[in-house]
Amino acid sequence: MTGTVNCLHCKKELTNDHIGPCPYCGKTGREISESLEAKIGFKAGMTATHKPKWSGEALTIFFGLYALILALFSSIIAFAPLSIPIKILSIFLFTLFSIIIFWWKRYDCLMLIRKLEDKLGGEKTTHSS
Q: Residues of 26-39 as b/e, b for ≥16 C-beta within 10 angstroms?
């Protein structure tokens, strides 16, 4: 912090402890000015990796696996000695129950898909600043 004391009238610089009239012009009155300088710095960095909840690759793997399971079940039912309406009903019920189970256990399904996606080379979105 720095400061100066000047005569109010003639603007000549006075000492900080000067009392009384100005030694140059003889008038009274002082002008005091102070200055303060401060520097503040802030630096931050952040890196984040985000993987969308259900990426396009994850959905492809999920529906691919589901299609394989459904095809396997359908081929087993096709060769079973059942009437056509019973076969259609069983495929419909299998599809319905599997959708309900996948919805109920969706977090576990997502984690399984993530493991498969990582093994198959799934990409992640990375942001650095």
A: eeeeeeeeeeeeee
Burial (0-12, 13-18, 19+ Cβ within 10 Å), 117: buried
Q: Same domain for 72 and 25? A: no
Q: How high is the pLDDT of residue 127?
A: 55
The boundaries of the domain holding residue 24 are 2-35
> What pLDDT band is residue 121 in, cutting at 50, 70 and 90?
low
Enter the pTM of the model.
0.43
- What is the model's pLDDT at position 50? 65
Report residue 12 CA to chain centroid gap: 60
